Amino acid sequence: MFHGNLLSTLLVILLVLFAAAFGFTQWKVAQIEKKFPNQGTLTDIGGYELNSLEIAAGENANLPTLVFIHGASGNLLDQANAFRKPLEGRARLLFVDRPGFGYSDRGPAENDTPAGQADAISKLLQLKGIEKAIIIGHSFGGAIVASLALRHPDQVQGLVFIAAATHPWEGGVDWYYDLAATPVIGWLFCNTVALPAGLALIDNATKAVFSPNKAPDNYVEETAAERVLRPETFCNNARDVAGLNAYVKTVAPLYKTIKAPAIIISGDEDDIVAEEIHSVGLNRDIPNSELVWLHGVGHKPDYVATDIVVAAIEKLAGRPRDLQAMARDLKPQ
Fold it and tell me: Is the pLDDT reported for residue 262 higher than 50?
């Protein structure tokens, strides 16, 4: 009798805690979306919508169209915040919310893989009348860039990989990605625990991503980083990360067929993506590629060495740029 009452009491307490966490999560999602409304434009690409922010080229534009693809846990504002100011007016700029991130719909099941996401972005480019572009991808976005080059080579003028994740590695991923990607249990986790825990940890997580460099002031606010904590987005992010290793095992052997010129930019103190596997692997596998090592830089060369990324874009557009000398002269903060 006593044990039965105790179990019943514990069950009631767990249900109350679950309901409270679920209610808080739903309330906070509404607050996040009110605080960070969509700054882009939704485009129907065949039964679902992708969100993108487009900046028109200026009268004196001197670069081809540039397409930016964000990494895991991000949205289009991450790359827009880094590159809009130094590139605005110089080219047509397109910053894309990957399927299931920011304000883009997830779309069909194939969008759980970089191949499906590359196909989705390819359709978006077609609908926007972009025949060819330099594609820039950070972190997980690097796998999308590589898949675009493999699956839609006619749309690719050049490739910039920034701290990219593109090759198989030993081991797994952080436990919460596997948990959140698990059917049923993952939904419960994403709708109760993930958001309040994420809010408590987001500042330290941002510091870790930038380490050993300093994150810009107001980075979390300016990039609407809290958007990834929304349950559906968090689960999408988890499926992406949890499935990446298996995916790149199948496609990495194909990188040697990529014809487009590529520039690979990597910090030598990246604790998020193993540069000695991914960046070195890209440089080894893509025939027409250049690897630019940044000493003392972590996972965010897009912010810490923005000028070098811009110079890499210029080099792919045909301008003479000594990226190795720029890398040697870099004094990261």
Answer: yes
